[in-house]
Amino acid sequence: MTEPVHKVVEAVWRIESARIIAVLARMLQEVGLAEELAQDALVAALERWPRDGMPDNPAAWLMTVAKNRALDHLRRRSLHAQKEGELTYEVENQLRDAMPEEPDAQLDRDDIGDDLLRLIFVSCHPLLSTDARVALTLRLLGGLSTDEIARACLVPEPTVAQRIVRAKRTLLEARVPFEVPRASELPERMASVLQVVYLIFNEGYAATSGPNWTRPALCEEALRLGRILAELASGEPEVHGLVALMEIQSSRLAARVGPDGQPVLLMDQDRSRWDQLLIRRGLAALERAAALGLGLGPYGLQAAIASCHARALTPGETDWARIAALYDALAQVAPSAVVELNRAVAVSMAYGPQAGLELADTLLSEPTLKHYHLLPSVRGDMLARLGRRSEARAEFERAAGLTRNARERELLLARAHGCLER
Question: Which of 98, 288, 390, 408 could form a disulfide with 23 if both were Cys (CB 3.0 to 4.6 A apart)?
C-alpha cells in the first residue's frame, strides 16, 4: 500500500505546491523559507499517510500542515513573549487572507489579489539574472524538478541548481517584499514574467519527463496567470500575444493524447476534439494584440502561426507557406536554434522535405541542440518522407534515446519500427 500512497502524495504535491509556497511566502515574506516549510509538509505526508491512511482532502491537509509550520516559525521568531497574543492574532488574520483562490477568481481588493501572481513577480525580481528568474519561478510556481527545468531551458542541471540557490540567497539578503510591483516598475519586469509563464505552459503542453506526454494542470495554471497579466497590462501587445498563443495551443490538449495516453501528432489529431471556445478566445486575444498598433512580437508571431493551424479544418488546408513566412519573421525578432528548427519543419511542409532537410542539417553542429531530441526526430520525419528509411530509422532511434518522456519515447520507437515495415 505504501507505493500507491506515495504516488498520491507526489501527485497532490505536484498540483498544490505552488499555492502552498505562495501562501507561506505571504505569511513569512521569505520565499526560500516558504519552500522549505512547504517541503516539511510534504515529508510529513510521506510519513503519516501510509501509516494513518489518506485524509479526505489531501490538498487541504498539506496546506494546513504547511501553514501550521509557518505559524510555529513566526511564533519562535518573535523576540518578545508578551506579544505572543498579538502575533497570533495577526498571523491568524494573515492565514484567512492568504487562502488560495479558485482558478477562475478575478482581481480583488489589492492590485492583484492572487498569491501566485505575487510569487511570480518576486521570483522575477530585477535583482536576479534573467536565467535565475526563469529557474526560480519554474521551481516555485511550476513545481518542476531541477532536471526538468534544465531540459526546458537547454542547460546543464548543475547550472540550474546553482541559479536557484543563488536566487533565493539574493532575495533573502535584499529583503525583497512579497508584493506586486508598482505600475512604474511593470515594464522592466513583464518580459521575464512572460517568458516564465510560457515555459511553464510548455512544460504542461509537452512534458520533458515522466509517464505522461502532457500535464494539463500546468497549462491551465500558466493560462490563468496569463489572463490575469492581460488584465494588469492591457496595453502590452506581447501579453495578449502570449495569452492568444496559450489559448490556441490549449485547445488541442484533448486531441494530443489517445485513449491510452499515447501521443497524437498534430497532423493526425481529430480536429473535432479541438476546443472551439479556446480557439475563439485565442483569436480574439491575437486581434487585441494587433489592434494596439505596435506590431507583433515573438509571442504574437507564434500565436499567428498557431492560428493558421486553428483555422485549418483539415491538415491539408493548412497554409504552410504563410507559416514558413511567419517563422522567417520570428527568426528576425527572436533568433534561436529552436526557431530555426521549427522553420525547417514549416519549409519542408510548404516546399518539400528536401528543402526542409537542408535547413535542418545546418543545425547539426549547433551546441544548444546537441542533446535536443526534436532535431533527430525532425530529421527522421524528413528522411522518411524522402524514402531514406534506414537513415530515418536511425534518427528516430537516436531521438528516442534522448527524450526523457516515456510516452514520447514509445512514439519515436514506433516510428523507427515503422521504417522497417515499409
Answer: 98
C-alpha–C-alpha distance, residues 372 and 342, integer Å? 13
Mean pLDDT of the region 266-290: 97
Nearest to 220 by CA among 22, 26, 405, 19: 19
How do 404-405 and 209-210 pair as beta strands? parallel
> Which of 205-219, 257-271, 366-380 is predicted least confidently?
205-219
Count the helices and strands in the chain (H runs, E runs).
Answer: 19, 2
According to DSSP, the residues that pair with 405 across neighbouring strands are: 210
Q: Which residue has the cell 479526505?
A: 56
Considering only CA atoms, give the Rg of the chain.
Answer: 23
Looking at residue 93, its pLDDT comes to: 57
Burial class from Cβ neighbours inside 10 Å (0-12, 13-18, 19+) for residue 57 reads exposed
Which pLDDT value is given to residue 252? 97
CA angle 91, 96, 100 (to 5 degrees): 120
The answer to whether the CB of 168 falls within 8 A of the CB of 137 is no
What is the mean pLDDT of the segment spanning 313-326?
A: 97
Of residues 204, 72, 71, the one with CA closest to residue 144: 204
Do the beta carbons of residue 100 and residue 83 sit within 8 Å? Answer: no
Cell of 391: 537513415
**What element of type H or E holds 327?**
helix 320-333
What secondary structure letter does DSSP report for 100?
A: P
Contact 310, 248 (CB under 8 A): yes
Predicted local distance difference test score (pLDDT) of residue 422: 53
Give the C-alpha distances (Å, rounded to integers) separating 285 from 32, 245, 259, 280, 335: 35, 9, 31, 9, 24
The matching CATH number, chosen from 1.25.40.10, 1.10.472.10, 1.10.3860.10, 3.40.50.300, for 333-422 is: 1.25.40.10
140 contacts 21 by C-beta, under 8 angstroms: yes
Domain ranges of the chain: 1-100, 333-422
End-to-end CA distance of the chain: 46
What whole-number distance in Å separates Cα of residue 201 and Cα of residue 214?
10
Where b means 16+ CB within 10 Å and e means fewer, 103-133 reads: eeeeeeeeebbbbbbbbbbbbbbeebeeebb
State the DSSP H helix or E strand holding residue 405, giving kind and residue range, or none if neither: strand 404-405
